[in-house]
Write a structure and sequence with these properties.
Blueprint: E1 13-14, E2 17-18, H1 24-34, E3 35-38, H2 50-60, H3 65-78, H4 94-106, E4 112-116, H5 124-141, E5 144-148, E6 162-165, E7 168-171
Parallel strand pairs: 3-4, 4-5
Antiparallel strand pairs: 1-2, 6-7
Amino acid sequence: MGLLEDPDKGEVKLFGRAVNGLSDYEKSELRLHGIGFVFQFFNLIPSLTVLENIELPLALAGIGKKERRRRAYELLDYFGLKSLVERFPETLSGGERQRTAIIRALANSPKIILADEPTSSLDDENSQRLMELLCKINRERKVTVILTTTDLYERLPSDRDFMMKEGRLFEL
């Protein structure tokens, strides 16, 4: 779904467009402008500040420095993390790192956020806070959030739940 792997069979459509056979460049463009990724282990760049980590996808999209800063500060303010702008990832708590990763995923105003096990390295309190944040993003910013988990007992705040078993997708 994130266009990182080609399907073994079948056809994949994203945003109403068949993506099988797209060039690497075309896939990169779709990811950059349509999909925000939130990884299990944050994937923040350690040598960049929180602000620079958030600005990175904007720079890759060719957004000028002034507009990058404006968007990054707007998102940091919206999520109450403006005080972290000059900090580096290793100085942040797990919850702050994951929220920074979510803000970075939102930087280019994607239509979809793919969140891979986003609570796996968080304590219960930060896991709950993260789930509330993803709900807020879905509700207020109208972004589809697709979340994976291997914990079948985790309470997911979703409209629809699916389970994949042996390569088949089942709606619960």
